[in-house]
Write a structure and sequence with these properties.
- There is one protein chain.
- The longest helix is centred in the first third of the chain and has 16 residues.
- It is globular and about 35 Å long.
- Helices cover 64% and strands 0% of the residues.
- By secondary structure, the chain is mostly helical.
- Helix 1 crosses helix 5 and helix 2 crosses helix 3.
């Protein structure tokens, strides 16, 4: 797993969405890891936005969470279109 020194904005947003969905179910990272068969440390890295998950990972997470993978991706895509405040 390659980690970038600088977090990708899309990865940060996806991680926040994943965390929101997990917490909405009252699950710990360990519980999500058990249900997906993934490593809890890896899921923590994804939630922190320090890794962009593969399509297979996104599909598995969506299935276990009971959400549409497309909805997760659309939310990230919509955020890209939102004008950012200028400093």
């Amino acid at each position: 797993m390659t980690r970038s020194r600088f977090a990708d904005p899309d990865a940060l947003l996806f991680g926040a969405i994943l965390r929101r969905e997990r917490l909405a179910r009252g699950w710990t990272i360990v519980k999500l890891a058990r249900r997906t068969g993934m490593n809890p440390q890896y899921l923590g890295v994804v939630e922190a936005g320090r890794n962009s998950p593969t399509l297979s990972t996104i599909l598995e997470l969506a299935e276990v969470l009971g959400v549409e993978a497309g909805d997760l991706i659309r939310e990230v895509a919509a955020a890209r279109k939102t004008p950012k405040a200028q400093s």
